Amino acid sequence: TCLINRIVNKKFIQNYKQTLGVDFSILRRTNPDTQQKTQIQFWDLAGQDSVQSLTKVYFKSAQACLLVLDGTDGNLRQTAEKWITITRQNMKEQMPLRILLNKSDLPTFQEEIIEQLAGRYHAQVIATSALSGQNVTEAVDDLIDEIYKTTQIALPPQNVIQVA
Fold it and tell me: What are the pLDDT digits (tens) for 98-133?
C-alpha cells in the first residue's frame, strides 16, 4: 500500500491503513515512443491468506504483476516462496513480473536474498523503499516499458493496463 502510494502520488504516507481485501489506484502515463496516453491501474491485493482466493479474478485481466514483499520479514524466504508460487499459478504465461523487496532503507533489510530469489525464480528482484523512493520509479518504469513492448501490436481497450 505504501509502495503503490509512492508510485501513484509520489509521496510516502506515514500512517497508512493496511489493505483489507483489494485497493485500487491509477497512474496516467504517456508512452515515450508513441505519445499514446495510457492509464495504468494498480490492484493492491492484501497479503492475508483470506484473500488468496481473490487473486485469480484480478490476474485474469492483468497485463503485469508487481509482487511486493517486506525485505525485513524474518520469514522472507518462506513468504517469498509462498507468494511467488501463488503468483505464478495465477498469472498468464509470459506476463511481466517484478518482485520488489520493500523497506531497503531499514537496517534489518535482507540484501543478500535478492540474488538468491532472482536465481531461484528467474525473475527480476529489486530492492525498494517506499519511504525514500529508492528504485520505485525505475522499477515501475521498467515494468511499464516491458508492457508497452509486449503489447505493441494493440493495447487493451481504452489504453488501460492493469497491474496486480
Answer: 999 999 999 999 999 999 999 999 999 999 999 999
Q: How far apart are CA 68 and CA 124, in angstroms?
A: 12
- Which grid cell is 132? 525514500
Comparing CA positions, the residue from 48, 67, 58, 46 lying closest to residue 128 is 67
User: How many angstroms separate the CA atoms of 130 and 3, rounded?
Assistant: 5
Q: What is the DSSP string of 142-153?
A: HHHHHHHHHT-S
| Three-state DSSP state, 38 | strand
Amino acid at 93: E
pTM value is 0.82
| Domain 66-164, CATH | 3.40.50.300
C-alpha span between 40 and 43 (Å, rounded)? 10
Distance separating alpha carbons of residues 23 and 77, to the nearest angstrom: 26
